[in-house]
Amino acid sequence: MGFKEELKREMRNATNDVAKEVEKQWLLDFEGHTIEISNKMMEETVKVDGEIIAQNTRKSIWSHIVPYSTLSGTFTGKNGKKHKVHVKIGGFVKLNLTVKVDGQKLLSDVQSFQFFPWKNKDFIVPYLENQFAEHGKLLNKELPDDAFLYDENHPRLAPGLADQLVNESVLPMYTKKLIKNFLQQVENPTDENRKVTYEKINDEKVISYFHEFLVLFSEAEKDEARVQKEALWLLEHAAHREVVKFALLVLGTTDCENIKERLKIIALHEEFTGVALFALSNGSRNANNAIWSIAKRVTDWGKVEALNFLEADTEEIRLWFLTDGVEDMVPGSHAPLMCAEKGKLDIELHEDTITDSIFDGVSKLLMALLYEGEYRQMDDYEYAGQVLMRYTKHAKTHCQTIHHFYVLTQIFEYVNESDDIWEERFDENWKPHEKQAVETNIQEISQQTQWFEEAKRIFEENPENIGAQAIMNFYERNA
Known about the structure:
Radius of gyration: 32 Å
Largest sheet: 4 strands, antiparallel
Structural class: alpha+beta
Distance between the termini: 52 Å
């Protein structure tokens, strides 16, 4: 987005913050009548027993250049007597209010404006924790600061995607200044010092200085207990997601064993999965099982992050990488390659026999590796030739569904490339006999005409079915 759109968003957010802070209300009792005075950004109102007797509305926020408003109105008391209400309200730095009834002062009040960036907003982490406490899970992907980030010029992004798009580091000295501000907050945790840190955090995305922060912060002199205390304050009062991430980043440099359960809840929201798992893995003991539990519950970019942190330290987890790792995954991400490597796909398929469930799971994994996104990961997989040769051999026994055969057609498409591409593959991760074996194995399985007949039936019922189309095209080209 351009500078104009960014400025427009900043003005909108600043105006909303001011509007929330100046919104005040007073309730008074006068001879059994309730007098209600409300002050808002664009209007002041006086009500008696719920009925408006005086009101001042503004057409523009700039009309506040006139600092005070006066409102006058009358109402009839219970004894039939008319009473006159006079209200004076306003001020630039402080909100001054004077209320008179029939010339007698009923109230004089002064309230200071406190423009803290977390004030008058919903705190993100308590929002997530309350949702989890009530339902045992996070029901939706929305966050309280969505309105702060998104508008007609800034479309909503999938949780976690914004961090994947960041490819620039922060300006020189930004991270050092942020650390200096935070350590000043740690030493003197006043709201003013917290405000300085909070606003500095919101200037940049945490992911853009993540690693630099860890290096510089590790060199700084600090009291870990006080650091954790202020990081927790930010975590619990953050109304903006980057502040949540910063707090988690700092917590990851401390002992997080005492907040392990809280981190697990926060990690369930894909916007925070990566940094929450950093805090969990770096700041607590024996975290891998907790990370696996989270990996099985998050989706899309959150799952990509979870796979980054998860280690195949048990046979059960290793097999999960092969059978379920790519479920609910973002197409084209690097996750399938991680699953193949951490699950030791090459070793699994080297066995003489495998189970139906392994074959079925591996079929999904291979489809993900074959996905033609920004780059095709199969070309980066060290054991591509060996794995596809062994898979197609196992397929002679385990190809039992139309989807399995569809996977074989996609493998055949992959090997049916130009000589130039194959020169590169033979230099990198293929041997000629592997390519020949893959082609031979698929041709042998395709002799079973049941796959063509089933694909034809599916196509007649649903011409949009991609798998049926691919299988029919395969038979037409290889008849």
